[in-house]
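Whiteboard transcription, Tuesday session. T.W. wrote the structure tokens on the left side:
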């Protein structure tokens, strides 16, 4: 059984470690703890606190020795800024990320341009966002696999959803899901037909990305209960990514609605439901639904 850590306890310990490192003048340790604190705060829903901690980590040199770590921190800080409605800071972060040598790879570059485009869109500049999304799509076509394109389409769907363009959102999420499913079918058919066939199923798109696509489709009003259950099944793996914790406020109301259908009584659903609920119970933006979540968990255990 997977156990979800209590991030609130980890947060207290991390804050103490950060203070101690600062007091000792241990810059490297302070940078690492600031990065860790930013990640924890972001998962728990404090985007502004996360942004401040991640900026501190970057200023103290966290990630300087590894381009991949540096890029990850820049992106994390930019995403936190966007969640905190600090759109100028988010744009600057994604612009810096695009200057990374790793951004020369088409898949990485497409993802970053898509993130930038989404930021511009929710900041209100739809014309510039459309230009950036078009660039992201062109770049994604140069990448191996479908994940870069799925990511770009999913962000375009989120931008449309934020702009209350329901049909555009449904079209983008539906195309993203279609691409992922087509790729999964092709990959797993080839594995089954290989000289040494494999019968396990692999996904061409990371669980966090696929889960976000399914929840985007659900949020756009175009999806069925089965789509929501598909997203729930991916949650245990998806929550490894900090961004996935921000899907919980969209997922939880759907789960409460599903409780009325009997779907959540299935044995296969309990483990991902337990993990999703355990994460949601740690977030203040899910607080109004905590009581209902606990009631559902108690009922499914019986």
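and on the right, the sequence the group agreed on:
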């Amino acid at each position: 059984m997977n156990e979800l850590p209590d991030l609130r306890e980890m947060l207290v310990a991390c804050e103490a470690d950060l203070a101690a490192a600062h007091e000792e003048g241990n810059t490297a340790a302070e940078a690492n703890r600031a990065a860790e604190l930013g990640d924890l705060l972001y998962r728990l829903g404090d985007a502004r606190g996360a942004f401040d901690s991640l900026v501190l980590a970057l200023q103290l040199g966290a990630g300087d020795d590894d381009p991949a770590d540096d890029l990850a921190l820049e992106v994390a800080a930019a995403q936190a800024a966007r969640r905190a409605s600090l759109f100028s800071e988010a744009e600057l972060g994604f612009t810096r990320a695009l200057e990374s040598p790793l951004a020369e790879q088409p898949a990485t570059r497409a993802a970053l341009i898509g993130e930038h485009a989404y930021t511009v869109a929710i900041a209100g500049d739809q014309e510039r966002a459309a230009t950036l999304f078009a660039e992201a799509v062109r770049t994604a076509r140069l990448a191996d696999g479908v994940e870069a394109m799925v990511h770009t389409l999913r962000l375009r769907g989120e931008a449309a959803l934020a702009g209350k363009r329901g049909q555009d959102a449904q079209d983008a999420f539906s195309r993203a899901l279609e691409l992922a499913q087509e790729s999964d079918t092709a990959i797993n058919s080839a594995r089954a037909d290989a000289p040494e066939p494999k019968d396990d199923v692999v996904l061409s798109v990371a669980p966090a990305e696929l889960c976000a696509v399914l929840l985007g489709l659900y949020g756009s009003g175009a999806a069925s209960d089965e789509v929501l259950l598909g997203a729930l099944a991916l949650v245990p793996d998806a929550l490894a990514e900090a961004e996935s914790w921000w899907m919980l406020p969209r997922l939880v109301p759907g789960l409460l609605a599903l409780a009325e259908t009997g779907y959540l009584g299935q044995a296969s659903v309990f483990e991902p439901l337990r993990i999703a609920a355990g994460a949601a119970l740690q977030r203040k933006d899910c607080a109004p639904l905590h009581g209902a979540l606990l009631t559902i968990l108690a009922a499914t255990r019986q």
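Someone added at the bottom: Residues 8-75 form one domain.
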